[in-house]
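ok so I'm stuck.
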Amino acid sequence: MSQDRPCRFLAIAVLNGEPDVAEAAERIFISIAVSRPGGGLDELPGAIKAAERMAAWAAAQGYATVLVHDRKHKEITVDLLRKKIAAAIKRVTDETELKRLVVFFAGHGAALAVGDQYWILTHWKKRPTEAIKVSSLQRMLEYYGPRQVAIIGDACQEFSASFLDIVGSPVLDMPDEEQRPYELDQFFAVDVGKQAFMIKAAGGQDDFCLFTEVLLDALEGDAAQASFEQIGQDRVVTSQSLARYLDSNVAQEAGKYGVRMIPRPKPGFYTDRTYLKVPPPATEGRPEPEIGDSVADAVLEDDASSSAGAAAPPRASSGRGGSRPGKGSTQASRAVERIALARPKAPAPALAARNNAIAKAREARRRAFADEVGSATVRDHFESGCGICVSGAEVAKVEASFGEESRVDGQPNWFRIWLGGESNSLGWSDTLVTLADGRIYSVCVVQGFVAALHVMGDGFLSLFHRPIGAGAYEGQMAIDLLAQAHSGLLSQEEIISTAAFLRHGKHRIITLGCIAAQFYDTIRDVDSLRSMASFYASHAQPVPLDIVLYGGGTISESEGRLYADIPAVAARKPRTPEEQRQSFTFDPTPGFERHPIAGRIPWMRQAWGAVVTANCDKSAEGWRKQALAAMAHLAPGAFTNVAPGGRQALVKLAGIKTGKRKARQLLSV
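replied:
not stuck anymore, here's the structure
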C-alpha cells in the first residue's frame, strides 16, 4: 500500500459534548468498518483503525458504543447492521428519548451523483442492495426519533463505473411510528468526485486516515483557540466551530503530505450545538474507556481485538509529528493517542499530474455532453399541448399511461401526447420510450411542456422539460446542469442556485426541481422540500413525484393517479448565516390538499431509494409495493430506465393498458 493511496470511506455520526454518565443512555455511537469488501477493491486497513479510534473517543465521552468491523465479523452485511443498530436504538428508546445517534462507517464509498452516496459492504459485488444508501438511511432515521444526527465522512467520493449497478439499502426496517425530522450535521472529507487519503504513521507501517486524525484533534480539544467557542464560562467545540476548524486545517494538513483534500462541512445543529466541553486545565484525565460489540449502559464491554485504535492512557497531547501544540491550543488529556504521520521527503508530482488529468478529462466530458445535447433539435410546439422529442437513438415505440400518443409525420422520434385539452395544466402521463435495442426509458410528460430526451453513446441520457413555445435558451440551464452532473463537476453551490431560481419562478424548466430536491434530501431540509412542492402547486403544475417522495407531502392514490397533501411551511427566523443570505429558505409557503403528483414512476434513479421511506396513506400502499417490485429492474443512469426484462414491471407500475389502441390520425404541422 503506497503512502498516499486514496481510501474510500464515509461516516455518519451524532455526537454530544459532555461526558455525563447520567446522559449516556440518551446517546449512541455506532462505529462500522469494512476493510476487505472484495470485488476487486483494495483492502483498507486504516478503515478499522479509524472506526476504533472514533469509537474510543465516543466511549470516553459517555456514549453507548457499538463497534462492528470485519476483523471481528467474517462479513459485514445489511442484515448484521440492521440487528446491531435496531437493538442499540431499542435499548435506549425503551427507557428514554434518543437525543443523538452516531453511525460511523469506514471503508469504500461510491457516489453516483450529488447526495447519492453509498457505503460498500462485504457482498456489494454479489448483491446490489449490499451497500448503505446514505440518503435512505437518513430518511429512515426520521421514523426512529433521534433529535439530532450528524454525518461525518472520511472517504473518496469518486464516480466509478464499477458502482453503477449499486442500489443500496436504508438498512433499517420501516417501524410503525410517525415521521419526525431531526437536526442534521454533515462533515465530509471531500466533495463529490474527489479523493480522500490514508497516510502512514511515522516510523511504522500502519495506515491512518488523514481526515479522521484532523477531526480527532478538534474533538479531543487539541486544537488552536480559534477552534472553540465561549459559551458562558465554558470553552466548547460546537457544530459551527468544528466546521470552521475543518475548513481551515484539512487542506493545510493534506498539503504537508503531498495530497489535496478540500473538506465539505455543513453544520446544521441549532439547539444543542456542543460536541465537546473542554475541562479546566486542573481537571483530572478521563478514565480509559472500553469498547465492545454490544450496547451497555454507558460504555460497552472490552474489545480484545481493538489494538491499533484502542484508547491510550490519558496524557498531555503533543503536536502532530511530535511537535508541541500551536499557540492558543489546550493541553487536555486525549482519549486516543495522537499519531505522528510520516511526511514525504518531497511532494508527489505523479499524484498531482494524475489529479490534473482527471480534472481535464471531466471538463472534456462536460463539454462533450453539453455540445451533443445542445445540438439536438427540440420542437417548440405540439398541437396536442405536450409531447416528446427523442434524439441520439432510434425509437421502437412509445406507450402512454393516460391519453393517446402518435408520431409526427416525417419525424419518427417525435411524439404527440394527447391528454385532453391544452387548458388542463395539471395533466400528465407516464410514458415508456422503448428504443430499437430494447432499452426502456421512463418519461413523465406534462401538459404545456415538451420533454426532450437525448440518448448518449455510452447509454446515459439527458432529459428536461421545456415550456411549449419557449426559446432554446430556456433549456440551456438544464443542459449545463446535467452536463456538470454527468461529468462529476456539479457542486452544491450550483444546486442551491437552481433551487433559488425555482422558488422565485425565474425559469420554467420543471425537471430541475428533481435535481434541487436531491440536494434538500441530502441535508434533510424537509421544509424546503415542502416549500418546493408548494411552489409547483401555486403555479398550477403537478408536483414531480421525486419531490414528494423525499418528503414534500403525504401520498394518496385514487383511480390510478397519485395525489399529495402538502403541509404549509411557516415563516421562521434564519438559523444560519447561509440562510440569512437567502430569504427563500425561511419564507412561508401555503399548504395544499390532494394536489396532483406528476407520475407514478420516479423521474430519476436516485429517487427510487425514497419509495420505501415515503409518507403514504393506506390508499397508496399498493402503489408502493408495485414500485418496490419494479426497483429490482433498474439499469444504470441518472434517469429511470430498465433493461428489456424490466418492461412488464414498469408497465404495471405506470398502469399502461397493453391492448391495442387506435391512435388519432393527425396531420403534421
